[in-house]
Amino acid sequence: MAKKDKNEKTVDKDIMADEQNAPVTEENKEDQGLSAEDQLKEELAKEKDKFLRLFAEFENYKKRTAKERIELFKTAGQDVVSAMLPVLDDFDRALTEIQKQESGEDMTETGTRNELLTGVELISNKFREALKSKGLTEIETAKGDLFDAELHEAITQIPAPAEELKGKIIDVVEKGYRLGDKIIRYPKVVVGK
């Protein structure tokens, strides 16, 4: 008889465990003290919360991808524009050399030199305008400007020729450029110490 009681107790425990793990039904809801309407309101609130979170996450995703796209468009041509900067420097050097030669030559070849200078200037201006239309701007740096480590790259320091030039730019070795708001090449300068 003791065995029979033990078996009945085990069966009773199994039934109780099954009832606790059983899915919630209308009868179970009423047993738990919640009406069907309250249960539906609770489920609706959970679903609304889930929907709002999902919607907010999607909105954040859209904003993030839109921002990334704008950045990509702004800097998409950065590699190409950066590769063109040495050509721009070469135009500046060519113009400077043609002007030097023009001032030192006699009058017989002046017409040819003027035409050469005009042609190179036209090509240079057209090239600059094409790069400008893509968002390239020159960083204005002149002799005598105050050196700013955030904006300039000092390649060397030399003794200042005058006291007022200490800590200021003495020479601009290479021009700097921005593409949009981003600096793609810092101006290389010589600073007085």
What does this structure look like?
This protein is of the alpha+beta class and 193 residues long. Among the domains are: 76-134; 136-193, Head domain of nucleotide exchange factor GrpE (Nucleotide Exchange Factor Grpe, Chain A, domain 2, Roll), CATH 2.30.22.10. It is built from 5 helices and 6 strands. Strands 1-4-5 form a 3-stranded antiparallel β-sheet. A 3-stranded mixed β-sheet has the order 2-6-3, with no helix packed on it. It is elongated and about 105 Å long.
Characteristics:
15% strand, 193 residues, three-stranded mixed β-sheet, alpha+beta, Nucleotide Exchange Factor Grpe, Chain A, domain 2
Present the secondary structure layout.
Blueprint: H1 2-21, H2 26-32, H3 36-75, H4 78-104, H5 110-133, E1 136-139, E2 153-158, E3 169-174, E4 176-179, E5 182-185, E6 188-192
Parallel strand pairs: 2-6
Antiparallel strand pairs: 1-4, 3-6, 4-5
Helix pairs in contact: 4-5
Organism: Sinomicrobium pectinilyticum
Biased composition (Basic and acidic residues): 1-16, 26-38
Subunit structure: Homodimer.
